[in-house]
Amino acid sequence: MSNSNDLTPLQSDALREITNIGAGHAATALSQLLGTSISLNVPVVNVASFQNINLTDFNQNNEIVAVYLKVTEGITGKALFLFDPKSAERIATLLHAMPDSQELVSSDIALSALKEVGNILLGSFLAALAEFFGLKFNVSVPAIAVDMTGAIFDGVMLDGEFSDDWVVIETKFDGNHICGTMVFLPDNNSLNSLLGALGL
Amino acid sequence: MDSVILIVDDAIFMRSMIKSILSKSGYSNIQEAENGAVAVEKYVRYRPILTLMDITMPEMDGIAAVKFIRKIDPEANIVMCSAISQEDMVIEAIESGAKDFVIKPFPPERLLEAVNGAIGGSGE
């Protein structure tokens, strides 16, 4: 497969299935971290122009909290964990990292906690995928940003390889008033490796 | 002076959390470093009885820092604490001289088990 627009229904279904495996590990990690039950929705797999990524729960002009990892080896691509600001505050509060008198964006400890949560969840997701496929992976140091959804993805687009269209794998986490969305954007080489390993 | 434990993690939240777990178990002399390069500097200065080391960090990653520290002190006690739990990375860390590998997220008991296992104690 040379272009992600060529994704067949069978391939989409396979990507959903393997995403479920990785996301299941991440959900377990999130539940352990927060001491509360977190469930998963069925992953959404779609092909989108990067500039027109339309996540199911996020308006381009809404503010979100995003943790970003660039995957630099093996299952290469870009991985993000997105929280709406209320969920982000709730997570920081559950982790005792939300100072009473400060806003999220101005609290170093709250942002550090959220960055670590995102890092752990994305690491857990990627480790499960890597184990399933027998592939290695390596990641960048995580970055966190609080900004409009569109601005976040503009920044991600500018980091490294640019592709006009990407496969966007999206999984929603939900539970105890906490919602988060994990997004994985495998690059074309990575996508070919993943689908090739599945015989697709 | 109590023996020093060095916590190396680029996330201030994670350093605070680990410090809290250790403090509650009686470990009171704790130093922190935000990357591998600072960890090497602080290792030379404080000669900690144990270093808890993250892997993915800016400036110098945890595996490189373990190799540096083990050159300085072949007997250094180092335990890795990382969200990246791939088998080959665990093997590389152990081969580089780490004594244990704790995968994030971890319950306090797991961290303390690794700490006490590495230094053979149960608190200061």
What does this molecule look like?
By secondary structure, chain A is an alpha+beta fold. Chain A has one domain (4-197): Chemotaxis protein chec (3-Layer(aba) Sandwich). Chain A has five helices and eight strands. In chain A, strands 1, 2, 3, 4, 5, 6, 7 and 8 form an eight-stranded antiparallel beta sheet that branches. Chain A is globular and about 55 Å long. The model of chain A has no long low-confidence stretch (mean pLDDT 81). With 124 residues, chain B is of the alpha/beta class. Chain B has a single domain (5-119), classed as 3-Layer(aba) Sandwich (Rossmann fold), CATH 3.40.50. Helix content of chain B is 46%, strand content 17%. Chain B contains five helices and five strands, in the order E-H-E-H-E-H-E-H-E-H. Chain B has helices spanning 12-24, 36-46, 62-72, 87-96, 108-119, and strands at residues 5-8, 30-33, 50-53, 78-82, 100-103. In chain B, strands 2-1-3-4-5 form a five-stranded parallel beta sheet, with helices on both faces. Classes of the chains: A alpha+beta (200), B alpha/beta (124). The A-B interface holds A 29, 32-33, 95, 97, 108-109, 112-113, 115-116, 119-120, 122-124, 127, 130-131, 136-137, 139-142 and B 10-14, 16-17, 56-58, 82-88, 104-105, 107.
Descriptive key words:
heterodimer; A: 200 residues; alpha+beta; Chemotaxis protein chec; eight-stranded antiparallel beta sheet; 5 helices; B: 124 residues; alpha/beta; Rossmann fold; five-stranded parallel beta sheet; 5 strands; globular
Q: Which sequence of SSEs, written as H and E, runs from N to C of chain B?
A: EHEHEHEHEH
Q: Mean pLDDT of chain B, nearest integer? A: 90
Largest interface: A-B, 25 and 20 residues
Q: What is CATH's topology name of chain B?
A: Rossmann fold
* CATH-derived architecture of chain B: 3-Layer(aba) Sandwich
Shape of chain B: globular
In DSSP terms (H or I, runs of 4 or more residues), the helix count of chain B works out at: 5
CATH H-level name of chain A... which superfamily? CheC-like
Portion of residues in beta strands of chain A equals 25-35%
For the sheet with most strands of chain B, the description reads:
5 strands, parallel
